[in-house]
Amino acid sequence: MKNKSIQKILLLMGVSIFLTGCVTVPGEIEKVEKVTDTEIKTQTANPTKEESIDYTLKDNKFLYETDDDTSVVTMYLTVRQGNKEENTNHTWEELNGHSVYYYDELGIERAKTEAILQVGDENGPKEGELGFGVSIPNAIVNIRGQTSSKAAQKSYKIEIKDGKGSFRDQKTINLNKHVFDGTRFKNKLCYDLMEELPEMIALRTQFVHLYVKDETVNGNAKFEDYGLYTQVEQPNKRFLKNHGFDRYGQLYKINFFEFYRYEDVIKLKSNADYDEAAFNELLEIKGDDNHSKLILMLEDVNDYSKPMEEVFTKWFDEENFFSWMAFHILVGNIDTQSRNTLLYSPSNMDKWYFMSWDNDASFSQTENRLAHDEESSGWEYGVSNYWGNILFQRVLKSKSYRTKLDDKIQEYRIIMTKEKLEEMITGYNDVVWKYRNQLPDILNLKLTNEEYLETCQTIPEEISQNYELYKKSLDSPMPFYIGDPEKKNGTFYINWDNSYDFDMEDVTYTFELAKDYTFNDPLIKKGELDYPECKIGDLEPGQYFVRVTAKNKSGFEQTAFDYYSSDAGRVYGVKCFYVLKDGSIVGDSYDE
After folding, report:
1. Which of 14, 354, 520, 530 is the most buried if burial means most Cβ atoms within 10 Å?
2. Global pTM value
3. CA–CA separation, 215 vs 136, rounded Å?
């Protein structure tokens, strides 16, 4: 029996050798290859621990595989009055009759209506698409946007009710008119570019032709053509899930936020004096509302006793941060220094990641020149555009970080070529041209057809133009703030912040005081000042303008952050103040 058992074992070993080509020794562990480029150390959300997960955020690029960037989806929106409890008992005319500022001033909720949202083509709703055959409301609609809500053509936010389906796995449908974009496709252009950049996080977009039937006052109404819109994915928990991120993480939309501590507003929700409305004015809460990690990050960013390299490594991801900044510098999206950005952090991790939101300010050099006949945008270019933000300022002061930013800019310049942009814009133009030249869009155009075509033609050149401005910003002193006049021993003085120079060159200042913002006939003009203060003597009651220009040893100049808002637009680098009859000083300021 024993010999037979041994024979069976040997026979089995032979079969194993024949099948596998090797002998597996009992107790031996077979070696496997594992991914080594992501080194997992210790998971922590505790700021006292030194180690953390080394994790790279990657978008779910499969979401865009079937996208046709120049297709147009037709949507049919039937609006009806709903009920008081949901604030949907309003007419369509009432909903469109006010901007969001009207509701903010009164402290009341925005008017809404119930709606039936249906998706199809120019022939009508299609079987198999959202809302087909539906006869009762499946959605709630109201206006969206801030400044754009003042325009004649509104943008809309349509929220599909629970259990009523979705549009491409999206429950919130943002339909944007882009009234301040003369092309009405720049936001989509930027998101479509981001889709192909591995380090960038995009939002899905879709051209939409919208028809609206207003049954709030007339039950026999017909569908009215509302023209071309761009549907943009809503950043929320569903967005996080669809893109492969943590839906339970923190997600904020930056409304006006420069990474200062903001102790009076940025608080835990458990605080007795926590004001969610005030919080949302700075950072709009789109994900989890536990703000403890945000507060810890802000405390470190504003603690100058901690080296920035230590703070940055702990709280931010290099690849994400410099990719985001490089992209927006190259496309010239200047409206990103303190808003129009999403800030995301996964649960149980310290890192914060930047995502883009609202790219209408991109590729605007030609359009601004045509609309305002001005070439200069003051300090709003390159890295100087971000200098007023405490996080960006501390990062940019590091030479090694500036090198990493430059490396990413060089990488993206190779990808976003003039030829690529020309091809994309040709496709968008084939869509937009038709709608901009027919009702209702033809009534509300920012640019003439000739200006529109010129803008389309010159946009592909703006990547190289923005790159040259970026290089100029590195060579120039950084912008600074001018203070209000102060009286010392009966004499008025004005001081200002020192301007920072990356090459540590000496910086001098030219000071001007005038009664007119053009400075054609200045009351005082002093140059080559090496100290940030100027004596201006006594001042009679009235309006005054101050202009201070910084200049480094290499001859590059920079204006102050301050600006004066005139009838012709912003006058950069100029501060306005008033001397009252009692001799007191009041500085002019503007709400953002």
Report:
1. 354
2. 0.89
3. 12
